[in-house]
Automatic annotation (TrEMBL):
This is Hypoxia induced protein. The keyword Phosphoprotein does not apply. It holds the Pfam family HIG_1_N. The chain crosses the membrane at residues 6-29, 45-63. The keyword Aminoacyl-tRNA synthetase does not apply. InterPro entries: Hypoxia_induced_domain. Keywords: Membrane, Transmembrane, Transmembrane helix. Signal peptide: none annotated. Residues 1-66 form the HIG1 domain.
Length: 66
């Protein structure tokens, strides 16, 4: 597992999802101009990053089964 670059890509993708999610939740909790301007955009980016992470996970599982 440590020599598999796809594993590291998966970990990075999951970290990006968490980072975007935490930024979005923080902006929502704080409110204000930043949230009004970027709240929906952050959640859209989270969905895109989450879909990419799931796709990488499925590719990783498929590659491990071979």
């Amino acid at each position: 597992m440590k020599d598999d670059p796809l594993f590291y890509l998966l970990m990075a993708a999951m970290a990006v999802v968490v980072l975007i999610l935490m930024t979005g939740i923080g902006a929502f909790a704080k409110g204000g101009e930043f949230n009004r301007k970027n709240g929906n955009r952050l959640m859209r980016w989270r969905l895109i990053a989450q879909a990419a992470a799931i796709a990488i996970f499925l590719l990783y599982m498929w590659m491990r089964m071979k």
